[in-house]
Amino acid sequence: MNSIATLGSHCALQILKGAKDEGFKTVLVTKKSREVFYRRFKFIDEYITVEDFKEIQDESVQTKLSDLNSVLIPHGTLISEVGIEAIENNLNVPIYGNRKILRWEADRDLKQKLMEESGVRTPKIFNSPEEIDCLTISKLSGARGGSGYFLSQNKDEYSENIKKFTELGVMHDDDTVQIQEYIVGVPVYFQYFYSVMRKEIELLGIDKRYETNVDSIGRIPSDVQSEIKLSPTYIVVGNSPLVLRESLLPEVYEIGDNFVKASEKLVPPGMPGPFCMEGVYDSNGKFVAFEFSARIVAGTNIFVNGSPYSYLIHGENINMGQRIAREIKEAQEQNKLDDITT
Ligand code: AMP
């Protein structure tokens, strides 16, 4: 591979800075509207300008990427704007990691299956509103960035919410909803990297998300909260770094190792590269996972200059983008690029 390419959004700056630091040529597929912004960063060598990210499927863009001998690094925007079908079928460029596992991230049933196979604790799932017997959070199918989620404690509250969201046009007849037990506690996001070349997992960072409006509700006195009948929303607006009690770290590594094993079994070749386990430490201090991301997450942007955990492993301030580039470099040197791309 001569170059590393990604879409201009999400964590593109981190990915390309890391690639440059590891000696790769860097390629950005950018929307025209953002080109001026991205040209401010001198570590980007080549620009492929599009009106819409979907154009990455076009032959002209594919040819440019092939001519540049690029490997494409997937991130959240590739999934949300280009789509799983296109990633699976229409992109001829090599994609870093396992492109098939992205579907397991996007589909709630497949996601649940993989998490259960890994043995990580997960919230109870309710198959119908009639079964609701505790505080629950209901989520629409597909990635909606935490908007349109709602809380209910019984089937009547659930039905009221469905009615409200349907009237608001947030929910449509063909939407499926997953009803999960709501876990009260501290939300935590583990940023892992699985190195195929070194056959080991690395915890490179931990973050906490800042979500609107749920993280601000506590700033309003409770009598005002009940008066204005606020519904919580979970739209991520930013991320803050977090360090865990050291005694919790062995379990974090076990969770990562087990997830890699489960994905190798259910979605070969497994989970090469970055992924994130997302959950809550409950009232008993136990970690319960409600989600995973099977690719680099934007929360890694906090650690562009390294995290306490990446420093402990590597003795240098390496970020997730650079770690990806280093893995590609090692694979290339050992003629094993096929082991880490699909
Ligand atoms: P998700 O889209 O599944 O990542 O969820 C968005 C946000 O909703 C999370 O970051 C949490 O703040 C919250 N959340 C999701 N699932 C649960 C759950 N089972 N218990 C508590 N909070 C949750």
Description:
- The protein is of the alpha+beta class and 342 residues long.
- Helix content is 35%, strand content 24%.
- The protein has helices at 12-21, 32-38, 59-67, 76-82, 84-89, 101-106, 108-118, 155-167, 222-228, 249-266, 308-314, 320-333, 337-340; strands at residues 3-7, 25-31, 46-50, 70-72, 125-126, 136-140, 150-152, 177-181, 186-195, 200-213, 234-241, 273-281, 287-293.
- The strands form three sheets. It has a five-stranded antiparallel beta sheet. Strands 3-2-1-4 form a four-stranded parallel beta sheet. A four-stranded antiparallel beta sheet has the order 5-8-6-7, with helices on one face.
- Strand 9 and strand 10 form a beta hairpin.
- It is globular and about 60 Å long.
- The protein starts with a strand and ends with a helix.
Write the layout of secondary structure elements.
Blueprint: E1 3-7, H1 12-21, E2 25-31, H2 32-38, E3 46-50, H3 59-67, E4 70-72, H4 76-82, H5 84-89, H6 101-106, H7 108-118, E5 125-126, E6 136-140, E7 150-152, H8 155-167, E8 177-181, E9 186-195, E10 200-213, H9 222-228, E11 234-241, H10 249-266, E12 273-281, E13 287-293, H11 308-314, H12 320-333, H13 337-340
Parallel strand pairs: 1-2, 1-4, 2-3
Antiparallel strand pairs: 5-8, 6-7, 6-8, 9-10, 9-12, 10-11, 12-13
Helix pairs in contact: 1-12, 7-10
Adenosine monophosphate binds at residues 123, 137, 139, 146, 149, 180, 182-183, 187, 209, 211, 234, 278, 280, 290-291.
